[in-house]
Amino acid sequence: IGLRLHGLDVLTTDIGRPLGETGGIVNEVNGTPGLHHHYLVASPCPDVAVPIVEAAFSAAERRR
Questions:
Q1: How far apart are CA 27 and CA 4, in angstroms?
Q2: Above 90 in pLDDT, residue 48?
Q3: How far apart are CA 37 and CA 13, in angstroms?
Q4: I need a labelling partner for 7 at 20 to 30 A (CA). Which of 19, 38, 43, 53 fits?
């Protein structure tokens, strides 16, 4: 769909197996992933978005 960063909601009984084997589905694709909730909790984890964004952009660079 052309998004460089997105959230993908998957419903499955076993994330370690292919969706076709488990009957799992892609439920939703979010163009603005909700990382903010990791910061708005009683024990915030401020570094949660950093590895996600770094991994997304480094993967994009490897594909070039």
A1: 19
A2: no
A3: 24
A4: 43
